[in-house]
Design brief:
Layout lengths: L6 E5 L7 H14 L1 E6 L6 H17 L4 E4 L2 H7 L3 E4 L6 H8 L4 E7 L2 H10 L3 E4 L16 H10 L4 E4 L7 H7 L3 E4 L1 H4 L4 H10 L7
Parallel strand pairs: 1-2, 1-8, 2-3, 3-4, 4-5, 5-6, 6-7, 7-8
Helix pairs in contact: 1-2, 1-9
Length: about 210
């Protein structure tokens, strides 16, 4: 069964917060309305990564928010995270599913490639991510995706879609309108002076205007 994933998807960055500071930042994001957290740390410090991921998992569990580990299948399995996010050069989806089990959330980066997303859905992905849609400070060289891709993907896919790349509370609504179920944000959250308030602005983009 496809898991219901929607809303603000907050992604951490080791350059923007570590240790206790990171946990405080993530809790502020959750209190502001983040609905899914991804632990992203590209460093080689395995001890630090294990310590931080374990602390974040405990925090997320206390708020009933899923924690996804970026790229590192071994770490996701070690801490029993809710899932893993895989890019083009990472572990295969099938291996991740075999190791993490049927209940795990597995997301796949599809950049600007709709066929890759269709293939990922067929292989059992729980969500796919497209982007970057705008200029990104985190990945300035990332491939550019057009907003119309979301409209096409919405018709072709039956699993949730994430939009990523330079997203702000000002430009994010057009992505939601085009079909994005989640907005993945790093800089727009963790570089802000008031993280909770910043997340609240993003969360408002998903509110039903009919309510």
């Amino acid at each position: 069964m496809t898991k219901k994933l929607s809303g603000l998807y907050a992604i951490t960055d080791q350059a923007l917060g570590q240790g206790n500071e990171l946990c405080a930042q993530v809790e502020a994001a959750i209190l502001g309305g983040a609905r899914i957290i991804q632990y992203r740390d590209k460093s080689d410090d395995k001890h630090k990564r294990l310590h931080e991921a374990t602390a974040l998992l405990s925090l997320c569990q206390s708020h009933n928010i899923p924690l996804i580990v970026n790229d590192d299948l071994a770490l996701a399995r070690q801490i029993n995270a809710d899932g893993v996010h895989l890019g083009r050069d990472d572990t295969s989806l099938q291996q991740a599913r075999n190791e993490l089990g049927t209940a795990a959330i597995i997301g796949i980066s599809c950049y600007n490639n709709l066929q890759h997303a269709i293939d990922a859905e067929s292989a059992g992905a729980d969500y796919v991510a497209f982007g970057r849609f705008f200029n990104s400070a985190t990945k300035p060289q990332a491939v550019k995706a057009d907003i119309d891709l979301l409209r096409q993907a919405k018709k072709a896919l039956h699993i949730p879609m994430v939009a990523i790349g330079g997203i702000t509370s000002e430009n994010g609504f057009q992505l939601v309108q085009a079909g994005a179920d989640m907005l993945a944000v790093i800089q727009g959250i963790f570089t802000q002076q008031n993280i909770q308030a910043a997340c609240h602005q993003f969360a408002k983009l998903f509110e039903d205007p009919q309510k």
